[in-house]
Amino acid sequence: DPLWSRGLGDVYKRQVLSKIKKDKLPDELQEKSADEIKKLLENKKIQRTKLQKDIASLERKRSEYLAKNSTKDTKDLGSAIITSIKKQAREKGYIFE
C-alpha cells in the first residue's frame, strides 16, 4: 500500500500526526482531517496485523509441507552425483562419517 510504505506506519506508532505539516503529508492525505487520517492509519494497522498473521501462517504451512515432502532419494541429479562419488570413494578405501 503506497500510503503505508511512505512511513505512515511510523507516524502511527509515534503518534506525532499533529506535529506534521499538511504539506509534508502524501497528496492523498493533505485534504483529510486529523480524525480521517487517524481512522485511515488505524485501518492500515489492522490490515498490516492481519497480513502479518497470514504470512506467519503460510510460513508455518510451507515449513510443514517441506518437512513432510522432503526425501533423500536419488531422483535428482545432485543426489545421484553425490551417491556415485561416495560409491567410488568407498571402493578406493575412503570412509564417510
Compose a concise summary of this entry.
This protein is an all-alpha fold.
Characterise the protein shown here.
The protein is mainly α and 97 residues long. The protein is built from four helices and no strands. The longest helix has 36 residues. The model has no long low-confidence stretch (mean pLDDT 79).
Q: Tags for this entry?
A:
single chain, 97 residues, mainly alpha, 4 helices
Distance between the termini: 52 Å
Question: What is the beta-strand fraction?
Answer: under 5%
What is the helix fraction of residues, given as a range? over 70%
Write the element-wise H/E pattern from the N-terminal end onward.
HHHH
Unreliable stretches covering 5 or more consecutive residues: none
Enumerate how many helices there are, as a single number.
Answer: 4
What layout of secondary structure does this protein have?
Layout: H1 2-14, H2 27-30, H3 34-69, H4 77-91
